[in-house]
Design a protein that fits this description.
This protein has one helix at about 65-70, and strands at about 10-20, 20-30, 80-85, 100-105, 130, 135-140, 160-165, 180, 190, 195-200, 205-210, 210-225, 235-240, 240-245, 250, 255-260, 270-275, 290-300, 310, 335-345, 350, 355-360, 380-390, 405-415. With about 425 residues, it is mainly beta. The two termini are about 40 Å apart.
């Protein structure tokens, strides 16, 4: 791959001169964001990349992390239930095979919006104990933990127990597990410069129906302003993304989703299933605190899944990314397949339809400022993103790239071992 890493940059310049009590401030802000997977010439692999935190939306910017700003949660969360094997509050001290699973039942500013724009928060079953392990189990489906299934591999230690199962069989997004990620207050967009996608919480971009979570990128006939961005540009493109930030996160385990990528081989579309650190500045700004893209798809390369692991030193790791995760004769485009990750203290293995397609032993390649097993020794949360591409030959092509384009997720299941 010519350039296996994509960049999402927000650049700002601030010149301040204080002379004799007279302060002159001249500010110029210019934002250039890529889409998930934008890069140079071939697919690359990150679903979220930002460098400099924004302070809008928080009364205390010093304690508001960048991702909290991006999702409009710049206040301390109200934590009502936290479950884990007993361990230190410092993620770097958690031992191999321990892991943590953390549940939050409220998140400031999001509870009333999870079911659609302006809608009331949907209700769903509260976390109930998994009788086989005593570990609380979070589910939006009363049918049973992980629908009676288990990962296609043996547990690294002990046995598997289900920690999250959403079959997306309802009529609205389960607000106990998921929150819409919006551009409002974040300046987060994807797509090429003149065709930016503004992420909104709308039934057109985020919906649950027919047994699926539907995340869409749409083109509207009218121009839309995108509130909260650092520029004043408008766009004709709206998109959907959801995450489990401060609602569900887990360290180590098996993560699996059954999903259908948009049915297209025309350049310009992208979809990503990925994990991001709950504390995204624990070891420093991206990529210091890590990122795990266990499935990433580009319509330019419809037969490829492009998983990747991001951390300091990944550029020298020959197994941190794979462009060949496809089972012969099958294509992710428009077809349901399973995408999974087995995450242990030493390895990351991704799976396509239950078959391993990439294994990365990242420890020997970890570089300053991290030290193995960091940065992958804290809980990560879940993300699903539908996007427009912006480079690598996968940029949106007006009049050719088909819209609306929808990423459908049939279910998301997570297991812990031990």
């Amino acid at each position: 791959m010519a350039e296996p890493r994509r960049s999402r940059r927000k650049r700002g310049w601030l010149l301040a001169n204080v002379i004799g009590g007279v302060v002159l401030i001249v500010a110029l802000s210019f934002a250039l964001q890529g889409s998930p997977g934008s890069g140079g010439g071939t697919p690359s692999s990150s679903a979220l990349r930002t460098d400099e935190p924004l302070s809008r939306g928080s009364s205390d910017a010093a304690t508001c992390t960048q991702f909290e700003q991006m999702v409009g949660a710049c206040t301390d969360p109200t934590t009502t239930t936290t479950t884990a094997p007993a361990s230190s509050s410092d993620p770097s001290s958690r031992g191999a095979g321990g892991g943590t699973t953390t549940y939050y039942t409220t998140r400031p500013g999001t509870a009333s919006s999870a079911g659609g724009a302006g809608g009331a928060a949907p209700t769903s079953p509260a976390a109930a104990p998994d009788a086989s392990s005593g570990t609380p189990f979070l589910s939006a489906d009363p049918g049973g933990p992980c629908s009676g299934t288990a990962p296609p591999v043996s547990a690294p230690s002990g046995g598997w127990h289900c920690t999250l199962d959403d079959e997306f069989n309802g009529s609205s997004l389960d607000s106990n597990t998921w929150s819409p990620m919006t551009t409002y207050g974040s300046d987060y967009k994807t797509g090429p410069l003149l065709s930016k996608v503004c992420y909104v919480n709308s039934p057109q971009t985020i919906s649950e129906s027919g047994g699926y979570l539907n995340l869409s990128v749409i083109q509207t006939p009218q121009s839309n302003s995108c509130p909260g961005t650092v520029d004043t540009s408008e766009t004709n493109f709206l998109g959907g993304m959801v995450d489990s930030f401060q609602k569900f996160s887990q360290q180590y385990g098996f993560f699996e989703a059954r999903a259908s990528m948009p049915p297209s081989n025309v350049p310009g579309l992208q979809a990503t299933l990925w994990l991001y650190p709950e504390n995204e500045t624990l070891y420093g700004p991206w990529p210091d605190s890590g990122e795990i893209d266990y499935a990433e798809w580009y319509s330019e390369y419809p037969n490829n899944d492009v998983p990747a692991v991001h951390y300091p030193g990944a550029n020298s790791d020959p197994n941190a990314q794979s462009d060949t995760c496809v089972i012969s004769g099958q294509s992710p485009a428009g077809q349901f397949h399973t995408y999974a990750l087995l995450w242990t203290p030493t390895t990351m293995t991704t799976y396509y339809d239950g078959v391993p397609c990439m294994t990365d032993v990242y420890g020997p390649h970890v570089a300053y400022p991290d030290a193995a097993p960091g940065p992958f020794n804290q809980p990560f949360f879940l993300n699903f993103t539908a996007a427009l591409g912006d480079s690598n030959g996968n940029g949106y092509e007006p009049g050719r790239t088909p819209l609306p384009a929808t990423l459908q997720v049939d279910w998301m299941r997570v297991w812990q071992y031990g």
